């Protein structure tokens, strides 16, 4: 399993670049874990990137896991009522 970490913003300003990078990682691996612990800001554009990637992985029968959700990620997931939508374990500290 390959692991990638997103660091910094996952916002409208970085969404296209992050999506491309994560798409390439998904292309190269059958199982991918994305560590979200270093995300310090996230908006709905960032959430859309995570949703699209999860859908693409499912469509291609690949495994994609989000892990180590930062406070910024948890806040947008809770605000959008999507905390359990991805099926990934969320550990609250």
Automatic annotation (TrEMBL):
Pfam (any one): STAS_2
CDD domains for this protein: STAS_anti-anti-sigma_factors (cd07043)
Protein name, entry field: STAS domain-containing protein
Coiled coil: 15-42
Signal peptide: none
SUPFAM superfamilies in the record: SpoIIaa-like (SSF52091)
STAS domain boundaries: 1-93
Superkingdom to which the source organism belongs: Bacteria
Keyword annotations from UniProtKB, A to Z: Coiled coil
């Amino acid at each position: 399993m390959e692991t990638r970490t997103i660091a910094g913003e996952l916002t409208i300003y970085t969404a296209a670049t992050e999506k491309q990078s994560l798409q390439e990682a998904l292309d190269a691996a059958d199982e991918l874990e994305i560590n979200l612990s270093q995300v310090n800001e996230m908006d709905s554009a960032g959430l859309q990137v995570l949703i699209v990637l999860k859908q693409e992985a499912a469509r291609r029968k690949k495994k994609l896991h989000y892990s180590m959700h930062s406070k910024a990620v948890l806040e947008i997931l809770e605000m959008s009522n999507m905390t359990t939508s991805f099926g990934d374990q969320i550990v609250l500290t």
